[in-house]
What does this fold into?
Amino acid sequence: MSLPWIDTHCHLDAPEFDADRDAVVARARAAGVGMQVLPAVAAAHFEATRRIAHAHGLAYALGVHPLCVDRAADDDLDRLADALRRWRDDPRLVAVGEIGLDWFVPGLDRPRQERFYLAQLKLARDAGLPVLLHVRRSADGLLKGLRRIEVAGGIAHAFNGSDVQAKGFAERGFRLGFGGAMTFERALQIRHHAATLPEQVPVLETDAPDIPPHWLYRTADQRAGGAATGRNEPAELPRIAATLASLRGWTPEQTAAITSANARAALPRLAALLDAVAAGPGAA
It folds into this structure.
């Protein structure tokens, strides 16, 4: 029997997990997190992300993150195209990502971000894959790109835009990712979306090791005082899900069923992979 929770966005390849990656996966499974999607952020990470996904029975995506674009080589887009061709028949490759635009961090090269974003949308379109989108104060720019280059839907990760922008993504077949930020009572816009969007829209994520929920968060003063940084983990997903359940008036079982169905709809290869896993050994 498959486990109920799906973490649609987890950077298990991050160096923060190098010392105890096996234990992190074990804790997630013990908590009922049956699947994680691991998005790469740079061409140099493609092989490692794929290897970790295969080693732990997880899924992965390939892409160049907007915060990595300034350090990326121009031929990294060719490396992505080559990787998508080489591994096109890999059932664990479920999306192109993490890609997108970041208009929050100052000093980034916006035209270069946009060039990489549009090029990666084209690669996703040609591969027939959905995308995992990084969206930070950039929803309008992302939607503009999606109007130019239609892709097979996907997930807008850590969404925190307006109602109109949320509708724009949903109308294009995208689901919206909710994680640790939703657990903060002052995150009014995120909690508003979590509570009011059509039930076909939300999916769950951790973005581990980043975006810790409120119970792991450490203030700058706490960190300066020696408090350990609160590393996020996929095992936190069920507790994060409890916030969504409370906001929606759902039971935990409903929350697991609805968000898992949404993740499967957003990422069809993930659905096929989970079905193969449920069918038994040798199927996936």
Observations:
- The CA atoms of residues 275 and 284 lie 9 Å apart.
